[in-house]
Amino acid sequence: MAVALVTGGTSGIGAAFSRSLAAQGYDLVLVARSVPRLEEMADEIRALGRSVEIFPADLADRDDVARVAERLEDASRPIDMLVNNAGFGVHTSLIDADVSAHDRAFEVMCRAVLVLSGAAARGMLPRGSGKIVNVSSTAGFVTMGAYSALKAWVTSFTEGLAVELRGTGIGVTALCPGWVHTEFHERAGIKASSIPNFLWLDAEQLVTACLRDVDRGRVISIPTVRYRTLIWLARHAPRSAIRAVSGSISSSRKKPVT
Q1: Among the residues of the chain, which ranges form H helices?
Q2: Are the C-beta atoms of 121 and 132 separated by less than 8 Å?
Q3: Torsion angle, CA of 217/219/225/227, rounded to 10 degrees?
Q4: How far is CA 123 from CA 15, 118, 153, in A?
Q5: Domains parsed from the chain with CATH numbers
Q6: Within a 13 Å sphere around the CA of 41, how many CA atoms are in the beta-carbon half?
Q7: Which residues does UniProt call coiled coil (predicted)?
């Protein structure tokens, strides 16, 4: 039976991946910090007739990341798909003397992606098959502070990994969503009303489109024509224009309460 491991699999895009993969016949390993939320999601997935293993872990903790990596490499319990989804918004100033928020964001959204992707690939290589999905963001194509920089790294890393694993039977995809209806924005302190309605996406539809791209072997998944068009423009527009637009978007957001 195919098994997928999803980090941050209890809410938002991660929960949508969990439900969609269960519907496709995958058993699941769910990784998240909150045990009650893990148990709640596990109950939901088991009601669909799938097996679920819950794996409490904080991906900002390197020991926890090592435990998840060990699970990914366990040949006796193979993982067929890894979804690196865990993440959060970062709106701390790039010149703030306190870099603790940046440290945590790097650990969760860069280092953990690096370590877990490598572990998954090592576990999949002997079987000659597997899929790795790294949830990045269209923010990586613009210049909205630390979050954009982190997600630009995720996209670039995923492309490099796809090159390294070419011909092995392991597919690698970076999902680059735009604004998605989840609790992510509320947690990040983003004023959602400043985002035009036509830019919002549904998490379930986003994941369906991504998994279709995964099956097609696409390395970069940017669901919807409107976002593919916007990102094409972002890639070809003068960088000065991208910085101006990024500044305008950033200034319209609600700053987190301190």
Answers
A1: 12-23, 35-46, 62-72, 100-106, 112-124, 145-164, 184-188, 203-215, 225-236, 239-251
A2: yes
A3: 160
A4: 24, 9, 23
A5: 3-251 (3.40.50.720)
A6: 31
A7: none
Buried residues in 202-238 as b, exposed as e (16+ CB within 10 A): ebbebbebbbebbeeebbbbbbbeebeebbeebeeee
Question: Global pTM?
Answer: 0.87
Contact in structure between 158 and 219 (CB atoms under 8 Å): yes
Q: Which listed residue (106, 141, 147, 179) is catalytic?
A: 147
Distance CA 234, CA 201 (A): 19
The tens place of each residue's pLDDT in the chain, 258 residues long, gives 899 999 999 999 999 999 999 999 999 999 999 999 999 999 999 999 999 999 999 999 999 999 999 999 999 999 999 999 999 988 888 999 999 999 999 999 999 999 999 999 999 999 999 999 999 999 888 878 899 999 999 999 999 999 999 999 999 999 999 776 665 445 545 555 556 565 668 889 999 999 999 999 999 999 888 888 888 888 888 888 888 877 776 665 544 433
> Is 147 a known active-site residue?
yes
Please provide residue 192's backbone torsions phi and psi, each rounded to the nearest 5 degrees. -65, -30
Residue in the block written with tokens 């072997």: 217
